[in-house]
Write a structure and sequence with these properties.
Layout lengths: L2 H5 L2 E3 L5 E3 L5 E3 L12 E3 L10 H7 L5 E4 L1 H4 L5 E4 L5 E4 L2 E7 L15 E7 L2 E5 L16 E5 L8 H11 L3 E5 L8 H10 L5 E2 L10
Parallel strand pairs: 3-4, 4-5, 5-6, 10-11, 11-12, 12-13
Antiparallel strand pairs: 1-2, 2-3, 7-8, 8-9, 9-10
Length: 213
């Protein structure tokens, strides 16, 4: 599938919130969203307030919705909640989910021992990687994905320069910057990321959406 066709399936709702349209709808880390569309799957990377937001989950959770997250975040939700840890794999609603790590290497906001999450989701033949809150970590070199959502803001996660290194290691068909424009970072970080990878890896800077019907 061409990148322009894949991009049509992806919506950035701000910060680390990514919404995938397909045979099922998948939302990663809903935070400060205004949409009321239902999600089939909600994946939450860790329990920090800007990733694990029960108020935002409630906007898109229905009885049939499945939440996949770590043990610390799971205590904040009810319904069909699946607790996972790095290294786990599972299938939910026909979607394959591979759970990976997310951690800092040169700062202490997201220690490796906290077992915070990243996800590779295989949806309709496309492999999407949501890196979570992370630095450029060795595990990224083993990924085989079509789309990579990578944080670029620095401070709590990798900088744009470090995200460039990560993208070169992962070599996705399409890279999409995230984690900017809300708490830390700006679109300048996303632009820096895209310019550096020009001619190497396709990068799409997505407009922030609200998904209002």
């Amino acid at each position: 599938m061409k990148s322009e066709e894949i991009v049509k399936k992806i919506h950035w709702l701000g910060h680390d919130t990514m919404w995938l349209e397909g045979s099922v709808t998948v939302c990663f880390d809903p935070f400060q969203i205004s949409t009321a569309r239902p999600a089939d799957l909600i994946l939450i990377t860790h329990d920090h307030f800007d990733h694990c937001s029960p108020d935002d989950v409630a906007k898109i959770q229905q009885k049939e919705t499945t939440i996949v997250t770590d043990a610390a975040s799971a205590t904040k939700f009810q319904g069909d909640v699946r607790i996972v840890a790095p290294g786990d794999t599972l299938q939910v609603k026909g979607v394959n989910i591979e759970v990976g790590p997310a951690y800092n290497t040169n700062k202490d906001f997201h220690p490796k021992k906290a077992a915070m999450l990243s996800f590779v989701v295989s949806l309709d033949g496309i492999r999407y990687y949501h890196a979570g809150d992370t630095d450029f970590i060795p595990e990224m070199k083993d990924l085989r994905v079509d789309v990579a959502f990578l944080p670029v803001s620095g401070t709590y996660v990798m900088t744009a320069e470090e995200a460039i290194q990560a993208a070169r290691a992962i070599k996705p068909g399409l890279a999409i910057p995230m984690h900017y424009g809300a708490i830390v970072g700006s679109e300048d970080d996303a632009v820096k990321f895209k310019k550096a990878l020009l001619g190497e890896i396709e990068v799409a800077i997505l407009p922030k959406e609200s998904l209002q019907d």
